[in-house]
Write a structure and sequence with these properties.
Structural class: mainly alpha
Distance between the termini: 25 Å
Oligomer: single chain
Strand content: under 5%
Helix content: 55-70%
Shape: globular
Largest sheet: none
Length: about 130
């Protein structure tokens, strides 16, 4: 029985090209475009912070964007865990933004895209029935 589970798992592994093709062809057309937007915004943010020392608070934005990008790309593959993770991050990020004690422009933590993330989360909820 154990050997059959291992064999099943080896059969279901997809190569990188198949994963990319599935991410583009399975979901609605807007999903891969938003995924590309996330990847480009992540690259832009890393490039912007290239001169900042790494263990600084400003790199928190890069960590958030990396998490958002990872979950969105999983959602492009129609994975429920990707959609749930993205929505959870959007809720946490929006909560942090609104529940902090200082005005948003005076804090060290400022998410640039939290409004868009909430909008993208509604798109995920709309198509959630198609996810597996």
């Amino acid at each position: 029985m154990f050997a059959s589970k291992i064999k099943y798992q080896l059969v279901t592994v997809r190569n990188f090209k198949e994963v990319i093709v599935d991410m583009v062809k399975k979901p609605p057309m807007l999903f891969p475009l938003v995924g590309l937007f996330h990847v480009l915004w992540l690259v832009y943010t890393v490039w912007t912070f290239r001169d900042v020392p790494f263990p600084g608070i400003t790199w928190l934005e890069v960590v958030w964007l990396l998490a958002y990008t990872t979950f969105w790309l999983a959602a492009c593959d129609l994975r429920k865990w990707g959609a749930i993770g993205y929505i959870a991050l959007a809720v946490i990020n929006t909560s942090i933004y609104f529940l902090q004690g200082k005005p948003a422009h005076t804090t060290d933590y400022l998410s640039n895209l939290f409004e868009l993330d909430v909008l993208f989360s509604f798109g995920l909820l709309y198509y959630f029935k198609k996810f597996r």
